[in-house]
Design goal:
2 domains; 5 strands; mainly alpha
Amino acid sequence: MPNAATRPSPPRADAPSNRLDWLAAMLVGAATFALYLASLAPSLTWAHQGADGGELLAAAMTNGVPHPPGYPLYTFLLQGWLELVGLLAPGSDIAWRGNLLSALFAAGSAGLTVPVIGSLLARQPLRWLWASLGGLLWAVSPLLWSQAIITEVYSLHALLVILLAWSALVKPQRLWYVVLSAALGVAHHLTFVLLLPAALYALATGQSGRRRWVRPVGALLLGMSLGALLYLRIPLVAGNGPPPVNWGYADNWQGFWWLVSGAAYRGYLFSTGGSAFFPRVAAWAYTVTMQYTPAGLAIALAGLADWDRSSPRLRNFALLWIVPVSIYAIAYYTRDSEIYLLPVVWMMAVWLTVGLAVIGAWLQRRFTLQPRWNALLWTALGLAGILALTAGRWSALALREDREARDYLSQSAQVLEPDSILVTLGDAETFSVWYGVWASGDLSRHAPGLVPLNDSLYQFDWYRRLQRELHPAIPAIDQSAADVVAANVGKRAIYFAELPPWVAREQLEQVGPLWKLKP
């Protein structure tokens, strides 16, 4: 095995990044953005668990509050981005603009991966080549790629996760970087706090002295406090109007806490029971393995094994990074909980790059190859593998031809009548309707006065209050969807996005993708 001179080394404290690392970062970011742009969804999409996109866009366009925990940072950035692209490309599709923002965030995360890995491979010849491989491997992982081409919150989460790793590993002496990354991360997605123990460990163990924990703890607490301040956006906008997308109606403490604490989703946490535990672990293992293939996983584990021998500090950091997130993803029993494994998948890309460098160093010693030629050879092999992964995954991931959600809106617009009521149940249909009414206007232009109601949300007091204030003239609007239908039969046309269990089938007729209540 390689000696200490050829092994990947831990970063030197606050070492200046090589200019080539940052040049490579820009090239990797540009190449990644080109890939995502070529595979970007052209409009609203339901693919890759992306139904929330319609709701996020509607919240941004109405200055509202999206689903828990409210995503104040993302909503703020999305609002500005939609406005900016609207000025630069008037008439462009609203959902396409949101998809493009996700591609930018994800490409940025791939680019930022390069200086992180470059610092970890500081003693490697042509380290920027190895680091570029790591950035590209991360870019083509299905978990990241799927979120980079739709409107969702997770590409920004990925970028902020890597910003935290960069600040803790590459710039540990400049704690204001840590303050910034912690503030942005907490202001965006609360699962970010699961990574803070790893960051704290990296910061504290990179220093000496009895008080080495004090300043990092202070920096992280300050960052978390600053990030929490951005949640003040929620009560400020909740009572302003109110906006039609207004989860929790959080102009009071009860609604605010319900929203930011994720009370609606607590039942999914640790709800699997003993019989579902092993299937959940198996799902975790499958997700992790398929990101870089079983062969890639083996090389990644070789990289972790090298850290175990040569740098216990990095080994401990990596385990603190992946274990809390993995436990959460296993315990949180939803159909899309694997998306929380993004930090784990990123760490695997780092391990994989380190593993390739370790194997390359061993072969260099075994066959007396020149270091530069060895690095170039492995880079060429790595690029060939990345291209093969990209080609093999294109048909499953690329969305440039996806039109299912857009066709649903178009067909619905053709049958809906002005001042009608449309009752929805599932996320995909509900959030598409919200997008069509309050974001793109695809539905409101064809059916002015359309009233979208979600049957599932009527269980919450805040939703009934919101409907009462939005539509005070509609009878029974603050009671239940069934009561609204009963009170408005013959007064308004009533449609359903799905067959409701409380309406007899013979009372409905199918019109396009919807069901209309017979008068």
